[in-house]
């Protein structure tokens, strides 16, 4: 009977690119909610190491998405405000 190589991935381990296999949310709010959920699960400390890596990778993708969406909105606001960001007064 042949043995699996020592560096073989266990059958129940997620694929290295499992985080990128799932489509990113279209809405900023959905991406932020998923990111907050991932952080909470990681901070709980009960995930196995391989799952921590998958969650970290997914979180990095979500963070990049959120930042790019915020940057795009900031640029739109600058255009609307003549290139100047103005202090928003809620009153």
TrEMBL record:
GO terms for biological process: DNA catabolic process. Keywords: Cytoplasm, Exonuclease, Hydrolase, Nuclease. SUPFAM superfamilies: XseB-like. GO terms for molecular function: exodeoxyribonuclease VII activity. Its EC number is 3.1.11.6. It catalyses: Exonucleolytic cleavage in either 5'- to 3'- or 3'- to 5'-direction to yield nucleoside 5'-phosphates. Residues 1-20 are annotated as: Disordered. The keyword Hydrolase applies. The keyword Hydrolase applies. It is found in: Cytoplasm. InterPro entries: Exonuc_VII_S, Exonuc_VII_ssu_sf. Pfam families: Exonuc_VII_S. Bidirectionally degrades single-stranded DNA into large acid-insoluble oligonucleotides, which are then degraded further into small acid-soluble oligonucleotides. Heterooligomer composed of large and small subunits. Belongs to the XseB family. This is Exodeoxyribonuclease 7 small subunit. It comes from Aquabacterium lacunae.
């Amino acid at each position: 009977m042949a043995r699996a190589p020592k560096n073989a991935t266990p059958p129940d381990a997620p694929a290295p690119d499992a985080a990128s296999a799932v489509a990113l949310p279209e809405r900023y709010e959905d991406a932020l909610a998923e990111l907050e959920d991932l952080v909470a699960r990681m901070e709980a400390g009960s995930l196995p190491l391989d799952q921590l890596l998958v969650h970290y990778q997914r979180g990095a993708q979500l963070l990049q998405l959120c930042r790019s969406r915020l940057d795009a909105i900031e640029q739109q606001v600058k255009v609307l405000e003549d290139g100047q960001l103005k202090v928003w007064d809620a009153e």
